[in-house]
Amino acid sequence: MALHSKSWSGVKILVFGATPMIPMRIEQSLAVADPSNEVNVDSFEDYDQAYDFCKTQQNVGLIFMLENAGKAPPLGIFRQLAKPYEDSRGPCFSVLVHENGETLQGHSSIRFSKGKIIDYVSATALLNPVTAYPILTELWKKYIDSIQEFIAPEALTLAIHEIVEPILSSADRILIDRVANCLSQKLSVSWWEALAIRWESTLKALEQADPTLWKTLKSLQQLTQRATSDEAIKTSGDLFQSKAALATRVASFIQLLIKHPKPEHFLNEITSLSKPGAPGLIKQVTALAPNIMLFLKDREKYRDQYEVAA
Fold first, then answer.
1. Coil, helix or strand for 11?
2. What are phi and psi of 286, to 5 degrees?
């Protein structure tokens, strides 16, 4: 997966800690590891400066927190720095950073963070751009999963899946997740667009299966609007010619794929459109066609398993 300028769209990243020079050096390493997001990363050693920055910006949604955060425990400092973002925008998350190995205090902070600390990493690894980059790419996926958990907790998600099962099967949902994740990692898709693509088909099915419940899920509705459009995309040709937003076209491709009576043929139609000047989505679907073919074969296996279980 390659991070890009839209990966952390709308979210600033802060590095905070009391160990002299370490926050600044981590900031510099992250900038080298992912130059496309260099302007999104800032660092502080002074708490008052860091808090003023968070309060002024109100878009610091991810905080790398050194365990050595000064006089107060790191979890307490994180909660204070996260408050401006959470008061105005939504959940803020943290990466706890140890300098001399993991500690009991660190694991205790994770346990009491209520899911807000999403990783526990070594400062040494972050100080090397080569090892920092895979941490950042994995962190992007963890960030999306954590946002989803706050928008749609596991119990609610499971209930929705049960309701939509007659319309959108478990095998179809697995296929959607796999294709969405695959394409989101290759295209210039932001974290919120990746979430919208993941949920768009499920929310459409829920609107049909249980309109009353669907009407109550305002956060999910607002999220999936980023992957919907009034433009009718019903064929591979429509997809080729569409001027809709990228997230909408990705979601539309997935919808067409899962509904097509012969999805392998549909995929071949898409790949036949790949030529100089073709949209990036068409080119990436073509490049990933062997993977998607495997996903389609796996869907048939999952269907057989679920039918036997039923």
1. coil
2. -65, -45
Say if residues 198 and 170 touch (Cβ distance below 8 Å).
no
> What letter represents residue 77's amino acid?
I
**Dmax over Cα atoms in the chain, in whole Å?**
63
- In angstroms, rounded to a whole number, what is the distance separating the alpha carbons of residues 279 and 129? 32
Q: How far apart are CA 120 and CA 99, in angstroms?
A: 11
Tell me the C-alpha distance between 92 and 144, whole Å.
12
Helices (H) and strands (E) in the chain, counts: 16, 5
How far is Cα 162 from Cα 246, in angstroms, rounded to an integer?
29
pTM (two decimals):
0.78
Sorted by where each starts, the structural domains of the chain and their CATH numbers stand as 12-147 (3.40.50.2300), 152-309 (no CATH)
Note the pLDDT tens digit of each residue in 142-176: 998 898 898 889 999 999 999 999 999 999 999 99
pLDDT of 310 above 60? no
